[in-house]
Amino acid sequence: MHNFKIGLVGLCCQLLAIHNIAAKQPEKHDFEFKSFDHGQKTVTSIRLNEQQQLSRYEANLNMPVCDDNLCANVVVKMYWDLAGNYSGFDTLAGKPLTKFDHRPFSSADYLKLDEILGDKNSILRVLGKDELTDKSVKLKSSTVDAVTGATPASVKEQVVEGAVYSAFTLWHFVNGPIKDSIQHFTKSIFTYKLAKQMLYATNHETQLFALKQLPDSFYEANALLIFDIMRKSSPLVRAFIVSKMPLPFSNPENNKAFAALYVELDNYSKSMFRQRIDNSKALTEMFGTLIK
Predict the structure, then answer these.
(1) N or C: which end of the chain has fewer CB within 10 A?
(2) 99-108, 219-228, 271-280: which has the highest mean pLDDT?
(3) Which of 238, 264, 263, 259 is nearest to 248 (CA)?
(4) pLDDT for the residue 2
(5) Per-domain residue ranges for the chain?
(6) Residue 179 C-alpha from the chain's centroid
(7) For 50-58, which contacts have Cβ atoms below 8 Å and span 24 or more sequence positions?
(8) How do residues 151-175 score in pLDDT, each as one tens digit?
(9) Range 104-126 average pLDDT
(10) Rounded Cα gap, residues 116 and 159, in angstroms
C-alpha cells in the first residue's frame, strides 16, 4: 500500500457543526460531497492525529477516469488539510493504480502523481479531456480489443505517462469544488484552538485561511503568537498580517515588539509595513522612529 505525505492516523470522529469561534471543539462529523462531473459521491471524514487534534479530511474514491475499457477505475484514499489543500493519498490493499493496458504504477509513477496533484498551477487546470491525447496517433491495447490516442509532447511532462486520464480526473477532483466544501465545513467548526493549529501549518495557504477567519481581538490577545508566525512564514502571509493587525496595540510592549520585527522582514513586507503606518499620522508618530 502506497502512502504519500501522510502521518499516523488516529481515531475517526463525527464533528458537530458549531458557529461560536471560541466554543469547545466538537467531537465528530462526516459530510457528503457529490461531484456530478465525475459521477462520484463521497463521504468526507475528519481525522484526529496522535494528539487528538483535528488534522485532515479524507475520502475513499472509486472513480471512472475514461470512456472506454482501457482504463480501470481509480480506487484511492485521498487527503486534504483543514483548508482544503491536497495533502496526499493512499492506495488500498489489492487496488494498485494502473496505466494503459492495465500495467501497474511504478514507485516513480506514484511520486509523479503526488507531485501533479499538489500543483495548483498545473497545465491540467486549463486543458479539456479531449486535449489529453493525439487522436491521429493510435496506440493499440495488447489486452483488450481497443485503441487510444497517444499523449502529446506538450502534455506528457504534466501527467503520469500511460495514465493521463487518471492524473487529469484526480487533479480536477482534489483541486475542484470539494475544496470549497471543505473550507465551508471547517468554518462551521472553527475554534481558536483549531486556528492556532492551522497557523503553524507548513502550507502558507492554510495559514492565510486561518488568519482570515480571526477577529481583531485574536490578534490583540495573541500578538506574540502572530509575531512568531510572521518570522517564520512567507511574504504573502506576513503582508496580510501587517494589513490586519489592530494597530496600535493596547499593550505598549506589543507595539515595540511589532516594530522590532521590521528588520526581519522581506522587502515586500517592509513596504506593506511602511504603507500601513504612513497612512495614519498617529501610527507614523508611534512607529516611525522605531523602524528607521
Answers:
(1) C
(2) 219-228
(3) 259
(4) 61
(5) 12-178, 215-287
(6) 8
(7) 50/8, 50/10, 52/10, 52/11, 53/197, 54/15, 54/25, 54/82, 54/189, 54/194, 54/197, 55/7, 55/10, 55/82, 56/6, 56/80, 56/81, 56/82, 56/87, 57/81, 57/82, 57/84, 57/182
(8) 555 566 778 888 888 888 899 999 9
(9) 90
(10) 7
Per-residue pLDDT reduced to its tens digit, 43-98: 667 776 666 678 889 988 988 877 656 677 889 999 999 999 999 999 999 999 98
- Distance from C-alpha of 170 to C-alpha of 172, rounded to nearest angstrom: 5
Q: From residue 164, give the alpha-carbon distance in Å to each of 4, 60, 99, 113, 124.
A: 20, 21, 8, 10, 10
Amino acid at 10: G
Selection from 226, 233, 238 nearest residue 267 by Cα: 238
Question: Which of 143-147, 155-159, 287-291 is the least confident region?
Answer: 143-147
Q: What one-character-per-residue DSSP string does 232-279 give? A: HS-HHHHHHHHHHS-SSPSSHHHHHHHHHGGGGS-HHHHHHHHHHHHT
Pairing mode, strands 86-91 and 134-140: unpaired
Nearest in space to 192 (alpha carbons), one of 8, 14, 20: 20
What type of residue sits at position 100?
Answer: F
Cα angle at 213 between 208 and 216, to 5 degrees?
Answer: 105
Specify the range with the lowest mean pLDDT, choosing from 25-34, 169-178, 244-253: 25-34
User: Is the pLDDT reported for residue 265 higher than 70?
Assistant: yes
Residue owning grid cell 475528519: 46
pTM higher than 0.70: yes
What pLDDT sits at residue 41? 62
